[in-house]
Amino acid sequence: MAEVDPRRPDAVTHAATYAATHAATHGSAQEGPGRFAFALGTFHATALVVAAVLLAHARGGLDALDGLNTMVGLALFALLWAASVAGTHWALRDVHVHALDVALRRGVVGGGISGLIVLGVGLAVFAVLVPFGLVQTEGGLAGLGNVVVTVLFIVGVYGVIGAVVAAVVGGALGFVFALVDWAILGAAGLGNGFDPRDEVARGG
Amino acid sequence: MGELHLDLALGVRLLHVLAAVVAVGAPVALALVIRAGPEPRVVEALVARAERWQWVALAVLVATGVGNLGALGDAIPDAGSAWGRTLFAKLGFVLALLAVSAVRTFVIAGHSLSSVPTGRLAGWYGGTGALGAVIVVLAVVMAHG
């Protein structure tokens, strides 16, 4: 059965309903959120990219893709995908009460976590590749200490500023997607106070 | 360098087409199989695998689709041209496919498969496949120029 918040007995949540019914019919509660997070996280990443391309096309800005290296683009997508699944998994880490306000709050934090993962991995790649590239370009290890110090300084400064931006942007996207998820789960028959097994029994 | 870029673009396009085959073909095949009325455990096993592969295929489709646009570069026609409008429509249908796939996944995940009418289950997969087929038609129109 779905979990019910004693303070809000009508607020049987989508995710809790899903997880509870899934656990009852398909396996353990632990398995439920994992599979749920993969599908939902993939939906978030792909919908975000398609929506961004759609907006860019509307503004005539698809030319900007010309400057993006294909491998870098695919790697960025893979990073966004992984971060999105990880953030969604965090948001669905248990199957307890998920009233809409809780779901939105978790969406914001989960989105923020995704944003920080993208930033963190990006900076880590930068910190490793740039000194390596500079050393290769310069043709030796001379000045490596200065390069490393410079890179660490850049990573530190951009890390602090970027973390705030990444968390805010990720949180805002997480909020939007929490609303979208709410609508999608509602359309799937996993709405408030709704037991999907009853609907199936009615032949819905 | 030019040859490497060409090979990479070809590889991305190949991946895009293969992902489309899975994203469109698997739901259609599943709809047909489910309508034939196999044993519930067969449906359960097929659906579990199909759901995961479907989402992987959609992710690959989106990633390589953006890669294909990048390969076109400056050659991308204006949004107001016929090609540009077709791209708008295609992207809109892709968003719709993603949303419908999400609803379908949660209808399946939130219910006991054995209690979901097979006609309803087949309908979800058939609908997903039909949306995918529209996208394929738009893609062919764009490729034709």
Secondary structure layout:
The complex is a heterodimer of chains A (204) and B (145).
Chain A: H1 14-26, H2 31-58, H3 70-91, H4 100-138, H5 144-187, H6 196-201
Helix pairs in contact in A: 1-2, 2-3, 3-4, 4-5
Chain B: H1 2-35, H2 40-72, H3 82-109, H4 118-144
Report on this model:
The complex is a heterodimer of chains A (204) and B (145). Chain A is mainly alpha-helical and 204 residues long. Helix content of chain A is 75%, strand content 0%. Chain A contains 6 helices and no strands. Chain A has helices spanning 14-26, 31-58, 70-91, 100-138, 144-187, 196-201. In chain A, helix 3 (70-91) runs antiparallel to helix 4 (100-138) and helix 4 (100-138) packs antiparallel against helix 5 (144-187). Chain A is globular and about 60 Å long. Mean pLDDT of chain A is 71; it is low at 1-31 and 193-204. Helices cover 84% and strands 0% of the residues of chain B. With 145 residues, chain B is mainly α.
> What separation lies between the terminal Cα atoms of chain A?
19 Å
The stretches of 5 or more residues of chain A where confidence is low (pLDDT under 50) are: 1-31, 193-204
Radius of gyration of chain A, Cα only, in angstroms? Answer: 21 Å
Helix-strand category of chain A: mainly alpha
Envelope shape of chain A: globular
Please estimate the helix content of chain A: over 70%
